[in-house]
Amino acid sequence: xxxxxxxxxxxxxxxxxxxxxxxxxxxxxxxxxxxxxxxxxxxxxxxxxxxxxxxxxxxxxxxxxxxxxxxxxxxxxxxxxxxxxxxxxxxxxxxxxxxxxxxxxxxxxxxxxxxxxxxxxxxxxxxxxxxxxxxxxxxxxxxxxxxxxxxxxxxxxxxxxxxxxxxxxxxxxxxxxxxxxxxxxxxxxxxxxxxxxxx
Amino acid sequence: xxxxxxxxxxxxxxxxxxxxxxxxxxxxxxxxxxxxxxxxxxxxxxxxxxxxxxxxxxxxxxxxxxxxxxxxxxxxxxxxxxxxxxxxxxxxxxxxxxxxxxxxxxxxxxxxxxxxxxxxxxxxxxxxxxxxxxxxxxxxxxxxxxxxxxxxxxxxxxxxxxxxxxxxxxxxxxxxxxxxxxxxxxxxxxxxxxxxxxx
Amino acid sequence: xxxxxxxxxxxxxxxxxxxxxxxxxxxxxxxxxxxxxxxxxxxxxxxxxxxxxxxxxxxxxxxxxxxxxxxxxxxxxxxxxxxxxxxxxxxxxxxxxxxxxxxxxxxxxxxxxxxxxxxxxxxxxxxxxxxxxxxxxxxxxxxxxxxxxxxxxxxxxxxxxxxxxxxxxxxxxxxxxxxxxxxxxxxxxxxxxxxxxxx
Lengths: 199, 199, 199
What we know:
Three copies of one chain form a homotrimer. By secondary structure, chain A is mainly α. Chain A is 73% helix and 0% strand. The first copy, chain A, has helices spanning 3-25, 30-51, 63-78, 86-110, 115-136, 150-165, 170-191. In chain A, helix 4 runs antiparallel to helix 7. Chains in contact: A-B, A-C, B-C. The interface between A and B is medium-sized, with 29 and 24 residues.
């Protein structure tokens, strides 16, 4: 297992757990919680792949199904003790957000689209799964009101553009982009930074 | 008209009627009820076809539009007397669920994907229309809390795999798979079998 | 800029503003309001393009992103004074609905589908963005209960068919189709015409 795969599994796990926990608060059954967790984890990338005319990534590799099953097992076994791990899951979630943003940008560029489409697709990859989760549990999307989240992905896109402009290698560009997303999220949550409410 | 087509129309009718009845409980107008009924009937298969990079099936054959119009006429004409037909519609719905699961699995295998993708697509074909219906009428998805439903499709996928493994013909595999879904649904509703609630 | 482009920008602006205003009533932040406005403006056409196996139109031209930014700026700057412009926005919205219906029909025919699919895709192009908007803000879709809206698109499809049948040129067909949608909307709102509620 490469370091990249390890990071991706951590991020998928964090996304799936966030879906399963919110589903359990709504008293969904195990199957419903699994579906909500899976949708949270793979929803953004699926939307991206459909718009890029690609086969959704999880249909080519059963890892994501298995990781979601692991997430369900963790929630069932740990139950109320999960709250003590909130900080851990927050970090996993931020790492996943950074990585998914990079994956979304690069897959879009590889499909032949310009960078501004890549930035949108990076943001969708990172943030749309959480929106689909909130639609499934019939709540207003959380990310449109909480601390800076999707905008961190857009900022990551700007960093990606900057790195490319000054001629950095692909590896450095990826690391700087993902790190910038993670740093923005950590700072936003630490200081409670939110965008202004409209009106 | 083949027996297969007859079964498909029954299932489509049952799905559309379930959507139209729930829309009418929300005081939607005729057009809104039609849209909700149509989405319930074709939503799962549409999601499947988009993910398989195929043209949504209902765009190639106007039958589904016409059957949904029939469903709307039935609900308007029969009105409150529909309640007496609840058992009939339950059976139609179970038959549709079984058939749609088989169609979803076979279309996925024909597109070159492995069986585990087929089982997911069979479940989406059978159950996702009801989830889209509940999103349109702004309710929490019913199938994540009521008697075993989507899991019956997954079980049907397991039966399909078993039939293929022992070398049964395509016809027998289809009949056993669909029947297993129907039987599980009938037993689940008769005995009120539900999955455990999470937490 | 051609007249066609000018009309398209007006319609996009009206759709985006309707999304942003409803998002602000839910106290979404600026980013959330932008996403809801953008989804309202491009959601119908995106759904259409995915079902026609085409790349979503807004991924090929950044105009729609920019127009949505303009819509956000208008809502922020004008704020409560927007109410006085309600009639203006209603006209823009009706013009957009007419134009989007025509675009949806023609793009579907160009992709090789028959006219009945074109009528559905024209209706989706015009009306589905508003449904996606209402799903994002967690409300029951407005168009399923208010004055005749999506049905005006279906009526426009009938006019398109009539124009083609009698051999009118493409230009006349487009103008008559869009005008019929606009006229139906204006009459429906002026006289408060609604479809019957089901049950």
